[in-house]
Design brief:
Order of helices and strands: HEHEHEHEHHEHEHEHEEHHHHH
Number of helices: 14
CATH architecture of the largest domain: 3-Layer(aba) Sandwich
Distance between the termini: 29 Å
Helix content: 25-40%
Length: 310
Amino acid sequence: MTILTFKKTVVGGIAASILALGALPASAAQRMSAPIPDWTGGAVVCKLVQTILENEMGYKIKAITMPSGAGVYEAIASGDLDYACESWPSYSSSKDIMIKEFGGDGTVQYMGPTGIVGVSSYYVPRYFVDEVAPDLKSYEDLNKYKEHFSTIETSGKGRLIACPTPAWECDDQKRLDLLGVDFVAVELGTETAAWAEAQAAYSRKEPFLLYAWEPHWIHAKLDLVRIELPAHNADTWPATGWAEDVTFNYANPDSMAEHTDAAHVLSNMDLSNSEQAKMVLDIDVDGKDIGEVVDAWLAENESIWRKWLP
């Protein structure tokens, strides 16, 4: 998931698109609101949905910056938000309470998979394995090398560049403690800060343990080795690794009953990991504006996204 380095939401050109479609004038457009996910992959998915709804269906979407997590689910259930994009099941306990398909009460509606399938774990740079720790393969091996990962702030314990924010519900410190790994999970507050620190350490060829996920451009930029964690088990979480995450869109049921065309898009989109990764690379590494990147992808891939329309 990349904490966004951009602030701007692009909503330009909607009036021309609506008129071209013979839809309602902009002043009478249907309105909905959605959060901007606080990692770039999720933001790309939501920007795709927003642009399609605005340009093809005459909607006006209010994109709101807020932390991901339980607060988004609560805002959707209350009707303050209409929909949200790319929830990773491993990162949300709210789904079990609010989404019927996960055993919840149905106050939040499961819309369907996004096409993005994620894997999360801890990683170390390959040069550390090759040159120092050839037997470092799993969490059980980490304590043997903790002095290589320790810093002044961790007082002899190893240091994990952890899941950036508590809102993602990674429970890194709990996992380390339950597994007997003598490391300190350090949350840097933003994904951007975590990537920056990992890349700086990599450039100095220093050892580091990093929370990360796939698909992500960081694996193209850095040669990383995944550390094995116990297989996911919901009953013993967080003393396990993450499950494979089939991500999904979710929404307010009343809003979707009213906006059935928007519901169709949210339920039928199918974006591949590789397509998303290309856009994330353009945004996070090449510094391009998310609106420009999404517009370019839509222009070049009409045969894909038109299948998402009603």
